[in-house]
């Protein structure tokens, strides 16, 4: 059996496409078997909702009168990048406010930053702007103080260089001190293990070889429509895989882009991580077109099939030692307790499975109602045999 | 029948030297367990979070006594609220909650709040990435 994207889109147009989420499909297959279900199903939808630090947004404010080539700017006291054309800016999700005391009183609480700014912008809130320029002959203005909303400016698009990690570390702490990390609070003596993946619902775990997800794939992004535009930074498809071909560590990532003006603040949430900083929690959902039985088989993956590495964030992560303590599957992680050796450790999620499910459901509903059509990738993402590898810093340093 | 309530007491500085809790025990036969005690920096208000146990009648009399003295009382459950619009059910709070008042319900993975287990320690407030925990018993 095989189907083309065009055939699937035709069924979507007629309101006849058969769509399940990557969670629902597991039960469907249990009841009907792979072969029968594969013939029936047209699309499997995935979802993920977690802090994705490598996120940000490009804005074009529109020109002031007289013109200004902004060289430094702050939006709601968050410094933004201005080293591009006159009134183009980039908001980075992890930028903290200029007067934040950061970790000088550890752990810092990081109440506001780039992620919150993006959420406020999408929510239509009024944003304070302060900008400076050195002044040029054609751009004479040197100072700007004012405010705007997303509707007042020309462009606002989300451009996240690294989102949607295929798989992720499970963090523990073997030291005697409490740790405050981007994977939450880690109690001493491996008092807890924190994980961060939607597991069986996660987009790149349902198409582990990037057979349907590629450059140009249309996706659910921040409650609106976006696109995969490139492999994400640190894309590392060549890592270890299990017998089902599923990566056993971080592996693939995506760079994604979409018009911020049609996104929803509920799916782009400013995030304050105690002792770490600020981030943006991003909602992403990717449809997997069931073009053949092989890809269908891969979307039927369950939490029990997916392994994640347990990493010590007291020593091995900061020191980049590459050591992993053990591997554990997501079914065990989601049960609330795992065992390392003879030690029982309670587990806690950092990303929201509940919201990942909601995203997969929304995307399913868009497709069923003919509001979302599937795309052919324009080019493939580098796959497991591409030789693309995650490198340590290869430059010189002391 | 003995009942148990977690209560936030706020009292004026004039009462800081009065053995209020002792009186609750002695006069009204109320058992107490201190969950939290604080004074504001400028000595304008004292705050006590107690778990009080006794019969319905004794508790009522005890509260009347406190109110007469000028102590304001609120149930802890009214003072700690999870803002459902902000909560994303991630589970960060459950990792630090010492009494499992916040816990992740597997396999649905909803973060559930069992208020009866809450002791008002505020750990969840500090770690919630989305500012979804609202506590009103902080000293104003």
Automatic annotation (TrEMBL), chain A:
Pfam (any one): HcyBio
Highest taxon of the lineage: Bacteria
InterPro entries for the chain: HcyBio (IPR002708)
Domain Homocysteine biosynthesis enzyme sulfur-incorporation intervals: 17-374
Name recorded for this polypeptide: Homocysteine biosynthesis enzyme sulfur-incorporation domain-containing protein
Origin species: candidate division WOR-3 bacterium RBG_13_43_14
UniProtKB/TrEMBL annotation, chain B:
GO molecular function: 4 iron, 4 sulfur cluster binding; metal ion binding
InterPro entries: 4Fe4S_Fe-S-bd, 4Fe4S_Fe_S_CS, ACT-like_dom_sf, Fe-S_Ferredoxin, NIL_domain
Species of provenance: candidate division WOR-3 bacterium RBG_13_43_14
Gene3D superfamilies: 3.30.70.20, 3.30.70.260
Top-rank taxon: Bacteria
Keyword Oxidoreductase: no
Pfam family, one: NIL
SMART domains: NIL
Domain 4Fe-4S ferredoxin-type residues, every copy: 78-107, 109-138
Protein name: 4Fe-4S ferredoxin-type domain-containing protein
Keywords for the protein's UniProt record, in alphabetical order: 4Fe-4S, Electron transport, Iron, Iron-sulfur, Metal-binding, Repeat, Transport
This protein's record includes keyword Transcription regulation: no
